[in-house]
Amino acid sequence: MKAIYNFKKTHISIIVILIMAAFSGCERDDFQKLPERNWELIWSDEFEGDSLDLSKWNFDIGTGEDGWGNQELQSYTNNPANISLDGQGHLVITAIQDGNRFTSARINTQGLFSQQYGRFEARLKTPFGPGLWPAFWLLGDNIETVGWPQCGEIDVMELRGQEPHTIHGSIHGPGYSGGNPVSRNYTLINDRFDNDFNEFAIEWDADKIDFFVNDYLYQRIENTDTPGEWVFDQPFFILLNVAVGGNYVGFPTAQTPFPQKMIVDYVRVYREVN
Known about the structure:
By secondary structure, the chain is mainly beta. It is built from 2 helices and 18 strands.
């Protein structure tokens, strides 16, 4: 009788698991069923020409002590050795080591372009190596008046150089900032993000932010998912950078190859047209 009972119990368990898997599969399918949207290109940089378009981008100059913290090691410069166009339609941000000194570059569209809602995307190839921290991200326009994290931050893509196969998509706001963002990662199988170009994007509206890699939706954050105030209801501007060191990635090691480059093919922003 005990054997029969165990068989029935196992049989029932299998049925329950199959039913749960079926419902879970439906949820995943629904998650991927996005409504048709009519996107209109509003702003872009294809990085053609010989130099960065300063009608679209500002340079951040200085060290972490000048306002962005994170215990980063690099100095950001506008030196062509750290940031330039390659003449083939790409922006190249290069992290360089010179003894114990590191230099890199960070640019932003603050005061030049910002948008509330829409699709923000960039196609790029990441650097790699312990202690490297490339990112494509957004900050709220009101950062100068309310500060961070009240202004909000959307990390469309950031990568720990010691994990070149995995990127992270996150949001920061009051009550969920620093080491406690709302976040999820996406990992390539048998590949790395420094091997080729990949497209990273968000689609953002009043209710949610969807995160994509190569048009695959891997994360949705709804305005009820944050443990603090939802602050993503205002225009945000764009940033691109490669940091060295910092509390997110740790220090470079002897195994970190320098120089390292983030190569950006394009950045594009769309709005939805009804």
